[in-house]
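MODEL INPUT / OUTPUT PAIR
PAIR INDEX: 1
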Amino acid sequence: MRIFGLRIQWIALLLAIAASAGLTFACKEGSRKRACEPVTGVGCKGSRVCAVAFDGTPTCYASAGSLSEGELCNAPDACGKGLGCVRLFGVPRCVRFCDPNATNDACRQSGIVESSLLLENAMSGHCAASLYERSDIGVCVVSCSQGSCPEGSHCGEVVGWREKVCISDSQLDQFTREVEDGQSCGERVVCKEGSACVVLGDGTICRRLAESGCSEGEESIEAVLADSTRDAGLSDEDAEAAAEETTVTVCKSCDPIGISSSEGEFLLCPAKQMASKACTEGVLARLTAGGAQYLPDQLGEVTEAWTEAFLQDGAFFWKNGEQVDDELWAPGEPAPDLNCAFWSRDGLVAADCAQEMPGLCILAPVQTE
């Protein structure tokens, strides 16, 4: 991908997409088996037009089709002049060809975009993909917005692209996994509509956009957008464009406390809730003797907060199956017949799970499998 220096990664992703869709092209880069140049249209006589056959061969067709850029298609010559029928993210639609080694200008020109489904987002066009096994023939990829995708597709996020693209409804799970607010996000794991994936300490989290207002107990903050495509290799033009969209206003209910471990970033969710609802962001935290010693200084005036410890078969365990270390308990604890446990400055204390208090939570690294 030209944008953000990730052309190779993006092409590799599109190759996998094309292969999974059953598109195999016999003519590879460097082959002379081509009647014309699909990017320029040069090579076809008279009124004939250049498009790419489903075997990957640039071919002259009798006339251009009637479909405009962005519309669904089912034949190589179904699209208008300068366009081809290409399957991207499982969606066969009319797209324009481009030179992978040139600028993105060809993908942003008016004309064939003006009457297309892609008009609203035309200036986001990038020569960001290539035909399968034909990296010499580029394809313009234009971001989508609500309502701009053709029937049977969904406007969603895919790793390696800063903006949303149209993904086939039947293949959405293949490219992304959608998670709720308060959960980890990142590569192939995206936030539901109305939320954004933002940086939180050493991790990334889905937080609801504040444009429609925040709920009681939440506050709106400026957060840095998590974006795996942003790197130090940006051109001056792309760096300037990216800088304009690095922050977003979101609602937050929990705060990092300055402690992290191999399991993730520790958070404090201050709203008093029963144990099962204590973490509006992340999940209840597991403690170790080494980590617990730092909590009094990091939690300030907070003197108690739920942990994930729970009673099972007469003993307390963490969710990973390990039994809670005896040295973590406060003197005289755990008391009998109580199923949950909270952290206190004296150590863990057993309690009724319905008791209300803040939650000591952890934001685990995103899982992409």
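PAIR INDEX: 2
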Amino acid sequence: MGRAQGAMEYVTTYGWTLLIVIVALLVLFKLGVFSNSSLPDTCISSSGFICSKVSLDTSGIMRFEFGQSTGNPITITSIGCSSTGATPGNQSTMSSLLVKNGAFVNLTVQCPMPPSIIGTKFVGTIWITFTQGSISYMDNVGDVTATVSTKAIPPVYVEGIVQSASVKTGSGFSVSFPAAVTQGDTLVAVYSTETTSGGCAVASVTDTLGDSWTSVTSKCEKSGAQGGNTWVNSAMFYTTAVGSATDVVSVGTNGGGTVSPSSGLIAIYEISPPVNSVVAASPGFGTSYPGEGYSTAAQLVYAPNSVVIGGTDEFDASGCCNAGGGYSIYSNSGGSASMYSNSVNSPTGFTVTSNNRNVYGWVDIGAAFEPH
């Protein structure tokens, strides 16, 4: 009898305790404490890599800051994201991005998740393929937990383009033409030409709507042609249209060298919807005298769904150029050209390649216009 009574007291005492624990666990489970949604946003970096400042939008685009401390430079060629620790089924190819030891860059990657509402959690792994020296690797950058915190960013795209080749010679000229624009859209002007006997031309842009134009990038280099008495010029400007109207845009030079006949190109692009920011390549990333044909590339790290615009000037009467990566190109026969690509998803890269012309000197410029 005493043993039975002791057993009952034991069950009574500790049974209530066990029941309370079970109820507490059920409440915590209902509150989501044990689900992914309760996990903080983190990126647990793998050895040699640094992964931080993670953000995720409703379309599954993840942005993060990447750094490396492997002791030597690496060149990233593709990037991927998986929802498990396994390697992703496919990676997004990107133009080769050099990351020096101790350096940081901002990268983007598409993660495998359906369109999601703000507050949804994603747990997965970021992978990159890179070369170091002559060896190629695929490695885990870090295990990431991220909350969908922003809406998907709609792409920007070139809505229209008007081009005009400059044909007037002299120490100063201006070419004007009408362009129907929408208020709030971004206008981009690209200018490329050769000048002689007087040095570099100083480009400028004005319009009838009174917009304030900002210089994105520009470069002028002395060419090896004609006894070194020729300069190649390229410049890019942008503005936000202040009204919906027919805007007469004037692009030209304020003094400087004499513009070579029929050598220049002026292109105006209208980008819609409004852009958020502009990322420019180092001005004049192609500046040399390469002779028969050339290829040159600049590194641009930009958000997905951006517009990339470039300009080039080659000193060659029969010259022209092509742009790699699916760009549309606008050019004249004097060796000047501008090119663009809509809704670019690759996070880096800008390449210009000539058509095997006898190039004496050239200047290339490029910039990415990012969406909100």
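PAIR 2 NOTE: The chain has two domains: 38-150, 157-371.
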